[in-house]
Specification:
The protein is mostly beta strands and 768 residues long. Among the domains are: 6-157, no CATH class; 542-747, Immunoglobulin-like. 12% of the residues lie in helices and 32% in strands. A 6-stranded mixed beta sheet has the order 23-22-25-30-27-28, with no helix packed on it. The model is unreliable at 1-166 and 588-600 (pLDDT under 50).
Length: 768
């Protein structure tokens, strides 16, 4: 039993909705807002539409600054990342002064999500005197109450107005959800008239990030969306094009965007990784990403790289067309589309993250509630009586792939989820894999495709199956890796592949007969051979062995580690900026000449310029080839993603790699039997490959791209638990790359740390 203790809340954000009169437009929750900073007792509100009819009330029963949303009856209550957004009642206008009866800069911390619900949802008054002092209410100047409520306003009238508002708020939220749902029904079909031969051009996008309530599977929950779309907008370009994305962050938390799989040649500061290549974009802030696509094509995606915001809706596809795409098709296809699979949670990611990182959780990852195909699925709301659920809007129904019969069609499958590996199939249709993480491969047929978070596979399906014209598309989470059980989990999601000759009838197709492969690991990558043959370098300049696992440290906290290092993001001092500034000041490498790699002195762990317990940095100078052997001492798999590169996947396995002697441990000399067995003629090149539980993986990397690059497990919970290290490559060239002033300005912005994950010391009281 944890005792309550004082904890400072940095600020309180008021968010309102129109409650009558004025415009008929449905406004998102963030259009009326104001911020109460630590120690202050009043706040001026802002209304971008200039209307004066809004409902507000603050019930300040807080706990530590993490996010939490609950639909309780017809009331929305949200606590989010150092900012509290709470139920709103009472009329106010632009620049009104809202005052608190008492200073609420200190409030009690509650020890669990259930306790948070009890406090935020308003349990019995006086139930716990320990918490009673945390309450605060908004008071208004007498003349304003008279103006808003009319002369002679009574308590009864206030109650009536409150009830009326809450009902209208529910309707307004539902309408806003319906509007968001109608945007995402395009199913991401690529342009059939795309000009692959167009000269290089700037492709410009304007994106606004907002907090918005949405119900992808029927259950209402808060999300962060780009341009009110879920999933987010498609970026489609040609190789050689320059992508320009103007981001306006109108959400309550800071954010960033990462371009998953993009090399960022010459622009490492545009990679979008908080704490490594940039500071976050603060609430109300703007930032422009600009980078040119060089030397790559295929299927990629973008997602937030701040906390687990990607799971809150901040993701979308990115497709790069090769100039020779039409000519080089090994199987000609008549249509091209995207299929995103994802696990889905009914809770805000940071509420789950707060719970996951608590003492004694021992890497007990949050279990998803649903699976989504292109942002939707069907849930029976009767199975979720404790949730505010509505699946009657036009968003719902089976996602459908309408395909011309007798043709071949390309489907680009992306796992945009936070945790679950998926197995994807289409009944009675073989899937010919032609691309893996942007690498074109010689086609090979499968009945089912296993895909981990962050990975992409393009498949060709032929619509020539006779006897039926509608078939189930099945995507199932591989739940064997889950460490617990969930009563609400629905691990399967279904779509429909329908020929143009089909009616609207439900498919009657059957599953493949062979046994399901439910192991949490990659497909057999040795079968997948790049179409453009490229042998791996015959010898590496340096060899590194890293042990990846979870360890219990201070305050009984379970954290992910590479060897002895567990990463923590620094929101105001990203390592790329520190490195470039340090190199410029020294006019040379900031690292010592000592080496941990074959004595060459050009590849080493830099524990001088960086704080190794929280920043493990592998540094190279010049163009080096390095081998990385990862041993996974965790029971779950780790899909390892490297920013800025594709690597050669040389070998993967279970247990220990082949060695001369198991007693001598893993050294380059002792694993010579493994090296003797390698086929270096044309190994698979990709940016996200998995090391299975209690297994190992050998990668070879040609380190030739100047920058600071994250190397991390792409299970979002593991990244936030610290399972990330950094590769500082071509440090000799990095000082020549100038970082725009706009990047540096992000670090000085107010609110840049809002939405950051919890710090270890936040849990100190829980471990007592």
């Amino acid at each position: 039993m944890h005792s309550a203790s004082s904890h400072v809340i940095d600020n309180i954000l008021f968010v309102g909705k129109e409650s009558g009169g004025g415009s008929d437009e449905d406004w998102p929750l963030s259009d009326v807002s104001g911020t109460l900073h630590r120690g202050e007792r009043s706040v001026r509100t802002y209304n971008r539409h200039g209307e004066d009819r809004f409902q507000l009330v603050l019930r300040a029963r807080g706990h530590s600054p993490r996010e939490l949303l609950r639909m309780h009856g017809e009331t929305i209550i949200l606590q989010q990342g150092g900012v509290i957004v709470i139920e709103l009642m009472g009329t106010h206008g632009e620049n009104d002064n809202l005052e608190l009866d008492e200073d609420i800069s200190s409030v009690s911390r509650r020890s669990s999500i259930a306790d948070q619900e009890q406090g935020l949802l308003g349990g019995k008054e006086g139930r716990d005197s320990e918490y009673s002092r945390d309450r605060a209410t908004i008071t208004r100047k007498p003349w304003h109450w008279r103006l808003c409520l009319g002369i002679g306003g009574t308590a009864l009238l206030v109650v009536v107005i409150s009830i009326w508002f809450l009902r209208n708020l529910s309707h307004n939220v539902t309408d806003a959800v319906a509007k968001a749902s109608s945007i995402q029904t395009n199913d991401y079909i690529l342009d059939q008239d795309w000009d692959f031969d167009a000269p290089p051009r700037r492709r410009e996008y304007t994106w606004t990030v907002r907090d918005q309530v949405h119900n992808p599977d029927g259950v209402y929950r808060p999300m962060m969306l780009v341009n009110t779309q879920f999933p987010g907008p498609l970026i489609e370009v040609n190789e050689g094009d320059t992508i320009v994305v103007h981001v306006d962050n109108q959400a309550v938390n800071a954010t960033s965007l990462h371009w998953h799989g993009i090399y960022q040649n010459g622009t490492p500061h545009m990679d979008g990784t908080v704490g490594i290549t940039q500071c976050p974009i603060a609430p109300g802030g703007k930032f422009t990403y600009e980078f040119t696509i060089l030397g790559q094509s295929g299927t990629y995606w973008w997602h937030a790289h701040q906390g687990v915001q990607s799971s809150d809706g901040m993701h979308g596809p990115l497709v790069i067309h090769s100039r020779s795409e039409k000519k080089s098709q090994t199987i000609a296809y008549s249509s091209d589309r995207i299929l995103m699979v994802a696990d889905h949670y009914h809770e805000l990611s940071s509420a789950l993250l707060w719970q996951y990182l608590k003492p004694d959780m021992e890497n007990m990852e949050p279990i998803p509630d649903s699976a989504l195909l292109n942002g939707r699925t069907i849930r029976d709301c009767d199975d979720l009586p404790q949730r505010h659920c509505d699946n009657s809007t036009t968003n719902f129904g089976y996602p459908t792939l309408d395909l011309a019969s007798g043709k071949s069609h390309r489907v680009r499958i992306i796992n945009v989820g936070a945790f679950a590996e998926f197995q994807v199939q289409i009944d009675e249709h073989e899937l010919a894999v032609i691309e893996v993480d942007g690498t074109a491969v010689t086609p090979i047929n499968y009945h089912r495709i296993n895909i981990n978070p962050g990975q992409r596979y393009s498949v060709i399906i032929n619509t020539s199956v006779s006897g039926a014209d509608a078939f189930w598309l099945r995507a199932r989470m591989i739940t064997r890796c889950f460490k617990g059980r969930s009563e609400t989990l629905k691990p399967d999601v279904y779509g429909v592949v329908r020929y143009d000759t089909a009616s609207d009838q439900t498919p009657t197709s059957t599953d493949w007969e062979e046994k399901l492969d439910l192991e949490c690991r990659d497909m057999n990558t040795t079968e997948l051979k790049p179409l453009n043959v490229a042998a791996a370098p015959t010898k590496a300049d340096a060899f590194f062995h890293f042990r990846a696992n979870f360890e219990i440290g201070d305050w009984r906290l379970s954290r992910g580690v590479f060897d002895s290092s567990s990463w923590r993001a620094n929101a105001r001092s990203p390592s790329l900026l520190r490195t470039i500034d340090g190199l410029a000041e020294a006019n040379a490498s900031s690292a010592p000449p000592a080496s941990l790699g074959d004595g060459a002195g050009t590849a080493f762990i830099n524990d001088v310029a960086f704080h190794k317990p929280r920043e493990s940095v592998l540094q190279t100078t010049g163009i080096q080839t390095i081998d990385i052997l990862i041993s996974n001492f965790d029971d779950g798999n780790h899909p390892m993603h490297l920013h800025g590169y594709k690597y050669f996947v040389l070998a993967q396995g279970h247990g220990y790699p082949p060695m001369k002697s198991v007693l001598d441990g893993i050294t380059r000399e002792n694993i010579q039997p493994l090296y003797d067995s390698l086929d270096l003629s044309n190994p698979l090149r990709r940016d996200t490959a998995s090391v299975e539980g209690y297994g190992w993986m050998l990668l070879r990397l040609v380190a030739d791209n100047a920058g600071m690059w994250a190397f991390h497990c792409h299970l979002s919970w593991h990244t936030e638990a610290g399972l990330l290290m950094q590769f500082l490559t071509r440090s000799d060239e990095l000082a020549k790359i100038g970082v725009p002033e706009a990047n540096r300005a992000l670090c000085a912005a107010e609110g840049v740390e809002r939405g950051m994950g919890p710090k270890d010391e936040d849990y100190r009281d829980f471990a007592e």
